[in-house]
Amino acid sequence: MKFIKKVNIGLILAIIAIVAVIVYSVNLEFERKSAKEDIRKACEEFIDLTDKYYTLPSEYQVIGEKSADVDLTNFFTKMEDELKTKTTSAETAKIQKTILTEYVKNQLVDTSKITVSFNREITKISSYGFDGNQVTITFSSKITTKQKYNDINLETGEPSEKIRENTFEVEDESITLEEKDGTWKIVYANLQYQDVNSSMYYGIM
Fold it and tell me: How far apart are the C-alpha atoms of 28 and 32, rounded to whole Å?
């Protein structure tokens, strides 16, 4: 009889443990599902910020002007300050600033065409990889750029400023985020950038 009671108690405890695990898993999945909207919003806000700083300041968007020695200190300082509001730490912001700075400076090399706008739009999120209070999302996006350039009239030889718009799709981009005080912040972003001033770039369009 005592053996039967022990078996029953063990069975009951096992059932309770199983139910607890199921309840925990369901609640965790519900929380993660609810968080996905906030995670996507945080990613989109960060992307909007990087789009903003992908192009040169308007005063330096001058076709044909050699501006490799221009002083962009204030521009880069403002960039880093804004990145700090979206990232987990000052070090993370500095890393993202370094990445953006490289692309901005590359645009000073060839000023025969100037990128005046850069827009990245998430088109499909393929996965959310949760790990504790962090998550890595993998996604595809559509990038649209506008460049101004001088079109030379063959008859008169006079230049005429025009705008060219290009759109292309990018896959397997990713952003890692961490939840801090109820807010999702960027840990690292693996975003693909094309060299907008290269001939190879146009071959992708």
Answer: 6
